[in-house]
Design goal:
CATH architecture: 3-Layer(aba) Sandwich
Bound molecules: zinc ion
Oligomer: single chain
Order of helices and strands: HHHEHEEEEEHHHHHHH
Structural class: alpha/beta
Number of strands: 6
Radius of gyration: 22 Å
Number of domains: 1
Length: 282
């Protein structure tokens, strides 16, 4: 008969083995299973409508994107708010645009994000603010999208559709909010997402600080700018706005802000100018 202490040790070992399996092996096995699933035929046409630039991607990038979309839709909880129904059009449209930011980067599929909340239209959020004396006040904001650091992104479906329909106007709320999500991944929303090397931050900071200062000066001076002047709000908004411009107006960004374009090519590991050329050739 095994002693009670032997049974306790065996029990602990079993629990440890289950924890290791769940933490170490299960995510990889689950991901493999998701990637083996066939990309549903109905999603193919939704994808073409959701991402007009899709035809310009290389075949290999298209396959990567489909795998990321499958993973995104399997992993993230889509929540309809204020009466919004969730269907595959919504799932594929949001997932396709969000996953465009992940191509070639092997960074996982927004590991901190759990839920995507979708409102039919602009929504009001109440933000609490505590002043230095401890007094808490609430102010309300009308928004088309919001990315929270607590694993949620909130989007207005009509604005998502508008951003997708015109993929060359530099405005795309999905790209914008998911750029914020990338920025959050290092724990600080400061316009500097996780870069691949320590040395990369120096050049990133130099280029982004100069571009941000220039946009602020243009906004204050009433001058026009390629980048939406909402990007002059703070460095985090600048990164989100620069991301929208990078994917939607890459030629103009490359011509007018070559160093910023090059930093974004280095970070996103794609060159959207090439997609435009390939897209037109098809
Ligand atoms: Zn923003």
């Amino acid at each position: 008969m095994p002693s009670s202490s032997m049974l306790a040790v065996a029990g602990l070992l079993l629990i440890l083995a289950l924890v290791i399996f769940h933490q170490v092996f299960w995510p990889g096995l689950r991901l493999q299973a998701i990637q083996k699933r066939v990309f549903p035929r109905a999603w193919e046409s939704l994808l073409l409508r959701a991402l007009p630039i899709y035809a310009g991607l290389s075949r290999e990038q298209q396959e990567q994107l489909k795998n990321l979309i499958k993973q995104f839709i399997a992993d993230k909880n889509f929540v309809g708010c204020a009466g919004q129904q969730i269907d595959d059009v919504i799932r594929v449209t949001i997932a396709a645009n969000a996953c465009l930011l992940l191509l070639n980067r092997n960074t996982g599929c927004y590991p901190l994000l759990r839920s995507v909340l979708v409102y039919p239209s602009t929504f009001v959020v109440a933000h609490e603010h505590q002043d230095e004396g401890g007094l808490v006040s609430t102010h309300e904001q009308v928004l088309v999208g919001e990315s929270w650091g607590d694993g949620k992104i909130v989007l207005a479906w009509d604005d998502v559709q508008h951003g997708v329909t015109d993929f060359s106007d530099g405005h795309n709320v999905v790209l914008h909010e998911f750029a914020h999500a990338l920025d959050h991944e290092d724990g600080a929303s400061n316009g500097a997402p996780l870069l691949r090397t320590r040395g990369a931050y120096k050049n990133w900071a130099r280029v982004f600080a100069a571009e941000f200062t220039e946009l602020q000066a243009r906004a204050q001076g009433g001058a026009g700018s390629l980048l939406d002047q909402y990007g002059a709000t703070n460095p985090a908004e600048f990164f989100a706005v620069a991301t929208e411009t990078f994917f939607e107006k890459p030629r103009e960004l490359q011509a007018q802000h070559a160093e910023l374009y090059a930093e974004l090519v280095s970070y996103y590991q794609v060159d959207p100018v090439g997609w435009l050329a390939a897209h037109r050739a098809t």
